[in-house]
Design a protein that fits this description.
Structural class: alpha/beta
Number of helices: 8
Strand content: 15-25%
Low-confidence stretches: none
CATH class: Alpha Beta
Helix content: 25-40%
Radius of gyration: 16 Å
CATH topology: TIM Barrel
Distance between the termini: 11 Å
Order of helices and strands: EHEHEHEHEHEHEHEEEH
Length: 224
């Protein structure tokens, strides 16, 4: 792992322009912008996602988190939001990744794998060749009301490490991260990037103190 530049940090659940500016000032490499979800924190309107994305300076990446499962629906949504990256938080059920790439050349694709057990390794291995990165989270996509992110729960990092070792694309680690455990997460999993939502929020808002503490711990973890 690159001890100087890694891991990248993605701050998710950005709610407005002020939170985007705060995250960027703290050193975030990417911002996560949550669109409509069946449950969980942080969804904002596609029009606001587009407005925030337009103001984010390069090289900071912008991720739209979409729960849409068809190529047609995802393309339609991206035509509004125009982010640099699409994060698919659920499985693609209509169309293929290849069709999605053909219609959105130059847009990065990140597939979320909800780590529910050893079977998640096979899922990640199957998906990885078709996307630019995988993101390991702690949702419950088979729940009566799907949980597709922002749970604040930690999953089994040993499974995440196995996935990281088995796939050839970058791996982001999410799920229950905070300043108190991110160094251990980096040590155990060795991810390309870490992704955080609830761990840097207080009262539903991005907390500058928690954010600064998290960023400091990431730097310490990546230099060990």
């Amino acid at each position: 792992m690159d001890r100087v530049r890694l891991p990248r940090v993605k701050i998710c659940c950005i709610m407005d322009h002020d939170e985007a500016a705060l995250a960027i000032a703290a050193g975030a490499d990417a911002l996560g912008l949550v669109s409509a979800m069946p449950s969980g924190p942080g969804p904002i309107a596609d029009e606001l996602i587009a407005a925030i994305a337009r103001r984010v300076p390069p090289p900071v990446a912008t991720f739209v988190l979409t729960s849409r499962q068809s190529v047609r629906g995802i393309v339609e949504q991206w035509q509004t939001v125009r982010t640099s990256t699409i994060q698919l938080v659920d499985t693609l059920t209509e169309g293929t990744y290849e069709e999605l790439r053909a219609q959105l050349p130059g847009v990065k694709l990140v597939q979320v794998i909800h780590v529910t057990g050893p079977d998640s390794v096979g899922e990640a291995v199957r998906v990885a060749p078709h996307v630019d990165a995988v993101l390991l989270d702690s949702g419950r996509p088979l729940a009566a009301v799907k949980e597709l992110g922002g749970t604040g729960r930690q999953h089994d990092w040993s499974v995440s490490r196995t996935i990281r070792e088995r796939v050839l694309v970058p791996v982001f680690l999410a799920g229950g991260l905070h300043a108190g455990n991110v160094r251990e997460a980096i040590s155990q999993v060795g991810p390309f990037g870490v992704d955080i939502c609830s761990g840097v929020r207080s009262g539903g808002k991005l907390d500058g103190t928690k954010l600064a503490a998290f960023m400091e711990e990431v730097q310490r973890g990546s230099s060990n």
